[in-house]
Amino acid sequence: MKRMLYAGTFDPITNGHLDLIERASKLCETLVIGVMENQSKKPFFTCDERVKMIKACTKKIPNVEIISFYGLLADYVNNHGISAVLRGLRASKDFEFEIHMAQMNARLYNKDVETIFLMTRPEHSFISSSLVKEVFSLKGDVSGLVPKAVLKELQRKFEEGVRE
Ligand code: COA
Which of 126, 121, 114, 96 shows the shortest CA–CA distance to 20? Predict the structure, then answer.
């Protein structure tokens, strides 16, 4: 596989995402990490902050490229020579959502693009970016769930929020 895309909000990147990135980077020539810009989710971190955190956490992986994108994932795929799209499966409930998304996207690709699913490791299967932010905001311990660079950014951003 030449260029595989792993898209998400990454608000922020967690150890679960990072594990998938490390494993998927061995399956392709270039792993493109696509940070979604426009969101109904209203991200806590700006797009630039999310990109910077991913860069800091993946600097040891040589074949990773980090981009941000806006609009339809399929448009990005069609216009940037992507041959496969990576998704992670954490639990059976992810499957229901993922199959619909993969099938809808397949209609929108203008060439053969496969969606590749990797199972999340069990120790990461309960992690989500929202849970990390919620636990951190209530002063719970999230070390071990996010990379150190993200922990620092969470501290900075929450302190900034408290001061405002
Ligand atoms: N480890 C830890 N957490 C994980 C994870 C893993 N391996 N995999 C997923 N998660 C978390 C994410 O952090 C996210 O948490 P949050 O909801 O608390 O933010 C949650 O699980 C859902 O992840 P995901 O399904 O990847 O959602 P997302 O918002 O990160 O990304 C897009 C979704 C961007 C890929 C999708 O919305 C998209 O393609 N948008 C473009 C618009 C489009 O084309 N729409 C039509 C689609 S058919």
Answer: 121
Q: How far apart are CA 36 and CA 21, in angstroms?
A: 16
Give residues (CB < 6 A) around ligand 1. Answer: 7-9, 11, 14, 16-17, 20, 36, 72-74, 88, 90, 101, 104-105, 120, 124, 127-130
Per-run averaged pLDDT (10 residues), the chain, 164 residues: 96 98 98 90 94 97 97 97 96 90 97 95 95 97 96 94 67
Tokens 């426009």 found at: 38
Q: How remote is the CA of residue 73 from the centroid of ligand 1, in Å?
A: 12
Tokens matching residue 35: 């940070």
pTM value is 0.95
